[in-house]
Amino acid sequence: MASNSIYFIGNWKMFGIANSYKILDKINHFFQKDKKNNKKYKIIIAPPFTLLQKFKERYKDKKILISAQNCHNQDYYGAYTSSISPFMIKKIGVSHVILGHSEVRQSGENSSIIREKTLLAIKNNLKIILCIGENKKDRSRNITLRVLKKQILNVIKKRSSLKKILIAYEPIWSIGTGKVPTNNELKRNIIYLKKYLKKKFNTKYNTKFLYGGSVDKNTINDLKKIKELDGFLVGGASRSSKNFIDIIKNFYK
Ligand code: PGA
User: Closest residue (by CA) to atom 9 of ligand 1?
Assistant: First the structure.
């Protein structure tokens, strides 16, 4: 495998109410019992803002990490109705934040905002799960790699940021559609980007890349063959403990 730890990250999007901690409890129960493999992977769950604090309190001393799904591009406090700053997220003990998700980009978020958020998240010692991905048109025009490189370089300007960021490659056409790239396509993109970043930033550091987009207990069987991947960002299938656990089970089968 490409790294010591494989990440299984659940992005709950707009899902979850108070008793949804039960899903997390079941995942945690599985994790505790999975003595054979549980040193090899990390679980991160990204619930909506309404559940962040509750989940963090419940999982304070546990191995399961909690991530926010977004943050604002201004720090501390301010007159930004409906927003949560990186500082506020860090203060409740959350370790990660997802930035640049295509569903957020769609609502008008551009690269410079994502960069500002990234810098503030780093300043607050949060780790970033940075989403990138081409749309259907980019893919058919054969400009996927160009698009992905641009999305990364618009946000990451310094070598020192690389270690604080997990890049989640999520082709937009694969999110929630049941479609995933072929292993060849995915492998080509990941290998290319990893090599490119090493050269660009003159580093030996192997930037971590996750794949996201229709990851489930079936698609994982092929995806797991791509040794260059460091983990998976799971949307729909992460909202049921059984589906999420099955992904991990099948990965190690
Ligand atoms: P999906 O979503 O697994 O439901 O395709 C992935 C994501 O949007 O992160």
Answer: 235
**Active site annotation includes 72:** no
Q: Does the CB atom of residue 212 touch ligand 1 within 6 A?
A: yes
Is 29 in a helix, a strand, or coil? helix
CA angle 128, 226, 189 (to 5 degrees): 65
Mutate to test the pocket of ligand 1, among 11, 14, 179, 218 (most ligand atoms within 8 A of CB): 11
Global pTM value: 0.97
Q: In 10 A of CB 9, how many CB atoms?
A: 25
Nearest partner of 64 among 113, 103, 31, 18, judged by Cα: 31
Closest approach atom of ligand 1 to CA 176:
5
| Backbone dihedral angles phi then psi of residue 193, each to the nearest 5 degrees | -65, -40
pLDDT in tens, 207-252: 999 999 999 999 999 999 999 999 999 999 999 999 999 999 999 9
